[in-house]
Amino acid sequence: MNAHVIIVTASIAAYMGIIILIGLSSARLSRWTMEDYHMGGREFRAFVLFSTIFGANISAVTLIGVPGGAYHLGWVMWPYFVTSWAWLTPLLFFVVGSRAWLLGKKRGYMTLGEVVGGRWRSPALAVLISLVLIFYTLPYLMTGLIAGGRILGALTDGYFPIWVGELVVALVVVTYLLLGGMRGAAWVNTFQTMVFLFGCLGIFLILASALGGPSEATRRIQEDFPALLSRANMSWQRFFSYGLIVGVSPVLFPQVFMRLLTGRDPKALKQMMIVFPAPAFFVMFLMAMVGMWGRAAIPGLEGAQSDNILPLLLVQYAPVWIMGVLGAAVFAAIMSTMDVQLLSVTTMITRDILSRSRLRHGTDRDMVRISRGLVIVLTVTAFVLALFNPLGIIRIVEFAFAGIACLLAPTIAALYWKRCTTQAAFWSILTSQFVLLALTFGWLPSELSFGFLPGLPAMAVGLLALVVVTFLTSQADDEGTEDYFNLFGTGEPSVAADPSVSKAGA
Q1: Is residue 492 part of a domain?
Q2: How confident is the model over 24-34, as pLDDT tens digits?
Q3: Residue 11 maps to which CATH number?
Q4: How far, CA to CA in Å, does 100 sit from each of 5, 43, 96, 263, 283?
Q5: Which residue of 63, 257, 314, 502 could cross-link 318, Cys pair, CB 3.0 to 4.6 Å?
């Protein structure tokens, strides 16, 4: 092991140690209740709420996928991600989050399945939504491990194989989640978000300086790869469809939706929404530019190999003494999403699925033990899948984001449209998911997507099904629509959750 590897490894190890210490500190305040382990007592103020939600959005996609995509597609990767994400996403945080937060406060809801299923008193709908979310969250979770493996391998010049980096990320995330649950994740994410933001700026400045400054680096791209400075490598259909999908899906990510319910009051949610756009624009711009410049600095990468462009640039141009610190910033982005992805999936399994089995009679302490066990099982599953080293990260998240975005129509309808029926929500989900899977895997001709990403026609079909079936069906008398919507107009104290949707919230 040479000095380069020792310095990088020691820096990253020190960072991981700090993360674990924060998890240990949060464990002292943890209580053996589902509300505390999964929701942190719903006590987070604006700064922590922003850090946790922003951290949950900034993942391997930002530091691995975006630079890797910009390597092939150019500057357009920046507007590709933030055209709608930086403003539509925080707007939806408030549109969906304000009412979901109130339901969480008054009925104890924790998951999207409970919020939508509770609207029509439909346990089956709650289970369906959670199964869809789990199906798409697992591959997204896997991207964090893949990114961790590639980062550590590249920063140490191949000294550590990819699986070692994946294992390190998995072990550290599991450790502080088992110790502190949502509170531990929130405290860690607050630290990680600060490390990540300053780290991104440091990465950009160091690499820009090493490449001769932003003007010189861009001039080289204009001379050698002029198409990267235009939208020539991307059709308008793909640009539009992905912009919409990226804009609407984050509010429904289980790792984000749960955190919208953890704020102390609606004021914290509004403050977070106002702050969110600026750092979103800032971070994506820096990473897209670095990835594009990398095409001239390290040419010849093909396909998913470009996902390694950021660590390759750091190895080639960053001083050894600072490389580990910048590497820690990359790990911060990866783990700040992975931790709450794991926690959110365990919440959906325990609240929406296991609560309908004989385990519904278990105590809070029993359910927390089960949740911790599920964290381990899910991490092992994601680790095994990541070892197969699948397609590039952007390809994986395009599929996952689209599947989750298809749930927006029934979610908005549940919160705002009294006339909408249970059958309409079911058909919206089933038809949209079928169209997405059929177009993605070739069961339907690709021409039916008209050049758009499969997620856009899937969303359109789901919305059409929601509207048509709503007006073809009538509401059942026992769906509880009036009781549900009355909660949005009253200042009553918390009431018990609908037992037909969630035993755990009662």
Answers
A1: no
A2: 776 666 655 66
A3: 1.20.1730.10
A4: 47, 16, 6, 11, 28
A5: 314
